[in-house]
Amino acid sequence: MRNSVNVRWITPEDFRIEANGSKVTALEVIPHQLITKSVVSEVKIEDGNAVSNIDNDTLKICVIERHRATGNIGKGFVKGFNLKCGAIASTVAHDSHNMIVIGTNDADMYAAAVALIKCKGGKVVVKDGEVISELPLPIAGLMSDRNFDYVVNKCEELNKTAHSIGCRIEDPFMTMGFLSLPVIPELKVTDKGVFDTNKFDFIEGRPFTEQDCLEKKTSIVIKENIAKTFFKGDNAIGKKMEIQGITYTVIGVVRDYSTFAIRTGGIWIPYVFNKFVPR
Q1: What are the two backbone dihedrals, phi and then psi, of residue 96, each rounded to the nearest 5 degrees?
Q2: Which pTM value belongs to this model?
Q3: What's the pLDDT band for 142 if we cut at 50, 70, 90?
Q4: pLDDT at 203 (0 to 100)
Q5: What b/e sequence results for 200-238 when a residue is b if at least 16 CB atoms lie within 10 Å of its CB, and e otherwise?
Q6: Which end of the chain, C or N, has fewer beta carbons within 10 A?
Q7: The 3-state secondary structure of 168-237, one letter per residue
């Protein structure tokens, strides 16, 4: 539990994103919500690589697999953090809790990732290659071995330090921690790359409708491997599944997608956020 940050050797070059033009699809954070918007934004190009554009708040985001040293690094861009320099990083990143890093430049993102490896997991703020705030979480990269007051004070310090380098989000580490959860719309980043929750590949059945969300949330969409495991090759549509004491009806089956982070998951229950309806 104290050696859970198992990352393949990384270098600053691992954070590069080859440019295919200056326009990119980015995740845009919605204040005080878990969902994101898919937007088109403009990045800067340096030596053929797409880099963060602090002028329009389009920052690079990377998710580094940290459990089996696979070397997987998902890369993309995010809007809403407004960092003007440096980077922030954490090993608290739902649900797989890989390492997640957001920054204005590759050097500071690399320094933040290395700092997390050295402290065996936690949360850090980096500026000009130096760690300026840090909360080690050496137990599974998720928990501290220090007392409550220490953790609370460090969390407050982390947020204040992130604000000092430009971040406008009240609790940036909490917000960042959900950007890798690929069951909540619209775009998220896993260690396999950017994942669009609105483009599940349906094999059979249907996606959620507004009526599903307005009722008692008893409809679910499941992954293909879940259907095969539970229903032994039978058509899963209309079948019942009991989850935590609640009986759900399968309305759709989607093709499996490859990511270690959520390979044991694969069940989606309708979410309603500001009248959002999964498509």
Answers
A1: -80, -20
A2: 0.76
A3: very high
A4: 66
A5: beeeebebbeeebbeeeeebbbbbbebbeeebeeeebee
A6: N
A7: CCCCHHHHHCCCCCCCCCCEEEECCEEEEHHHCCEEEECCCCHHHHHCCCCEEEEEHHHHHHHHCCCCCC
